[in-house]
Amino acid sequence: MVSQGRTAGRVPIRTCVGCRSRAEKNELLRVVADGPGPVSELVPDPDGLLPGRGAYIHVNPGCLDVAVRRRAFARAFRRAGPLDASVVRRWLESETPNGASPGRTDTRRPRLIGQEEGDTT
Ligand SMILES: [Zn+2]
Question: Which part of the chain is the YlxR domain (predicted)?
Answer without folding.
Answer: 14-81
